[in-house]
Automatic annotation (TrEMBL):
UniProt xrefs under PROSITE patterns: HTH_TETR_2
Signal peptide segment: none
One MF annotation (Gene Ontology) recorded for this entry: transcription cis-regulatory region binding
InterPro entries in the cross-refs: BetI_C, Homeodomain-like_sf, HTH-type_TetR-like_transc_reg, HTH_TetR, Tet_transcr_reg_TetR-rel_C_sf
Keyword annotations: DNA-binding, Repressor, Transcription, Transcription regulation
Protein's name according to its UniProt entry: Regulatory protein, tetR family
Transcription regulation as UniProt keyword: yes
Organism: Micromonospora inyonensis
Gene3D superfamilies, alphabetized: Tetracycline Repressor, domain 2
Location of the HTH tetR-type domain: 8-68
Location of the DNA-binding region in this protein: 31-50
UniProt xrefs under Pfam families: TetR_C_6, TetR_N
């Protein structure tokens, strides 16, 4: 009988090998050759699953999103809404080594977006997840009276999304200037500003 190959099990084996390489050496080190060596495979065998570096990075980003979803569902989201929102959004920022490595994968794949449809699709999926999280966060704050009535909720969600992207990039590229405590403080400052009115009445009542 021909040997039956469990492709899902083999992909899971590759995912484990890939994340060992990424976590130990950084996302840029996750090549077909390095992951094949980590998994004890030949590069040729690995190329049956991934023919390009982009496919490998896209596979890695799928696992980033799966890990983030798992962390989200495992978290206890009870407590004051302002604290819960802060914790929710911090899950999307590179504040520890695991999330730094995940962000590195996203950044490497994002660099391929202009020329590669697969990269464009996977990065768009990741960005959609962040967008939904910011919409959820701002809506929850607004429902709790923690967003000023003259602020437009969709606009504030867009601003928050842009802030998260900027904080993530600064934390990844300039960790000496943007350590985790400063990133958390910048996010907290933005959230604390949302209840403040933006129109002329804000100056009149100050």
């Amino acid at each position: 009988m021909p040997k039956i190959v469990d492709h899902e099990a083999r992909r899971a084996e590759l995912a484990e090998a890939m994340w060992r390489v990424v976590y130990r050496d950084g996302a840029a080190a996750a090549t077909v050759r390095s992951i094949a060596a980590e998994a004890g495979w030949s590069p040729g065998a690995l190329r049956h699953y991934f023919t390009t570096q982009t496919e490998l990075l896209a596979f890695a980003l799928e696992h980033v999103m799966a890990n983030a979803t798992e962390r989200f569902h495992a978290e206890d989201w009870t407590g004051p809404i302002r604290e819960v929102v802060q914790r929710l959004l911090e899950e999307l920022l590179p504040l520890d080594q695991q999330r730094v490595r995940e962000m590195e994968v996203w950044l490497l794949l994002a660099a391929r977006v202009p020329a590669d449809p697969l990269a464009r699709t996977r990065v768009a999926e990741a960005d959609d997840g962040v967008r939904r999280a910011t919409e959820l966060a701002v809506t929850a704050l607004a429902d709790a009276g923690l967003v000023a009535p003259d602020r437009d909720v969709p606009t504030e969600a867009t601003r928050l999304h842009a802030l998260l992207d900027g904080l993530a990039l600064h934390a990844l590229l300039h960790p000496d200037l943007m350590p985790p405590d400063r990133v958390r403080a910048a996010l907290a400052h933005h959230l604390d500003d949302l209840p403040r009115a933006t129109g002329p009445s804000a100056a009149d009542t100050s």
